Amino acid sequence: MRKTILLKAIALLLIISSCSDDDDGQDLIDFTVNFSSETVNASEEDTTSEITLNFSRSASEAGTITVAYAGTNAEYGTDFTTSPDGASGTLSIPVAIGDQSASFTFTKLEDAIEGETKSVTFSIDGFDNTDWSQGATASTLVSFTPIAATSGVVDSENGGATIPNQVYFDFSSATQTTVQRDTWEIALYNGAENHVFLNSALAVSAVELIGVTDLLAITETSNLSEPMELMGLNAMFQPEPVTVNTVSELLEGLPVSYNQYGNLDEGISFTDNPEGTLEDTAFSEISTTAEENYVYIVSLGNEIPIEEELEESIEPGTINTSGDHRGFLKVRILSDGNSYTIQYADLAETESYNEVTVSKDDAYNLTAFSLTNGETVSVEPTKEQWDINLSGVFAYYGDSGGLVAGLTYSDYVVHNNLGGAGVYQVIVEGDAPTYANFSMDNVEEASFVFNNRSYIGTGWRQPYGGPIYEDRYYVLKDIDGNYYKFMFTAYTSTEGERGHYQFTYERL
């Protein structure tokens, strides 16, 4: 009898609790509004800037945010305008139910003259909803001349649980550049040497056919000039030798997967090294002697799944980043030292091939190229204008816990090693300062890692979609000598959807 009464009491409490949550929203955190950055650069090249206000959670009701402004040597209508219109002295920013942020557009009409300070400070002035409040970053300064950003909270635009986008972020300008990760397969190095990189965010891989210079002579039925002695995994995920004699056999182990072939002991990998250095890329260094450049078969990676077309919806906290395989192409790349010539064709093609020449551009680390569209693609910003890349997906052939195979990671972050950025991690233990207490006096120059883009990786979160580590953060030194500390605070939305990274940063 006592047990029955106890069970009924528990059930009643659950019903009361459920009704309380539904009726009065007590489970919602406070709704606060912050500018995404304390500073924004309105450079000569950019006439418009999108200024973002981030919310602590999705809006549960509609409303309006009022933003005021004050100019230094800048007048509305003469030096700048905004959208929504701010001629009255304030802007009214609408918020709809479900919004996680809001924004307005700043348009620069006149540049600052040499030696002149010109800026506009925007401040949160109020709300038409009494339950809303200002966050810690209640204003932002838009400068007409370049200044290094001081701090901010960044919500990345990676796009959700299929992680369709790569995001490049530059701390000093507080800007993120978004590019869909399936718009390119290879990238050409613009430095003094001649190198080709693969799109690791799309799981692109490539194998060199030693001695083969005739692109049209190779088809799926071709025999290799000599057998390749590789390693693979059997059905029990144990390594075993694999001898490959034909192109068709080679294709079985070329795409990135647990079944990918390789032989690390012999230096054979069909992906670039995870460190992102010029050494140990899948493509050998491109020679200026044409006869020394051989044909490659390139696996084009995997489609980005379209969530609306999936048979089952992606549950909160989970991801689906790899769709159908995109096929293979045969590729040969030449160089004269100042440009690259890319020859490529379908694997079955024996009559003709496509050829495109791409000049080097030393403003960029890499020039991306789409083999599927036959054109260069704007991907990376200039080498001085990005520090970290929230790649979302990252693939390479390597060793993980003793399993040597093609590995794919999600929620992955790399830094601009080719552009000269350095980074290191601080774990709060012993005498190490907390994130809040870390200052320029705590910077350890010898700790910066400049030659390994994968240093950050997934080291900021626990494995298998686990929570973010709260005991660590990162210190970054950019190419201009600015120092920043930054810490990841989320990689899901407030509704639990993966692919929404958030981090906070501060210039030291």
Polypeptide structure, described:
This protein has 508 residues and is mainly beta. Among the domains are: 120 residues, Sandwich (Immunoglobulin-like), CATH 2.60.40.2030; 192 residues, no CATH class. 6% of the residues lie in helices and 39% in strands. The strands form seven sheets. It has a five-stranded mixed β-sheet, with no helix packed on it. A five-stranded mixed β-sheet has the order 2-10-8-4-6, with no helix packed on it. A five-stranded antiparallel β-sheet has the order 11-30-29-28-27, with no helix packed on it. A hairpin with a 6-residue loop joins strand 14 and strand 15. The termini are far apart. This is HmuY protein. Keywords: Signal. It comes from Allomuricauda ruestringensis (strain DSM 13258 / CIP 107369 / LMG 19739 / B1).
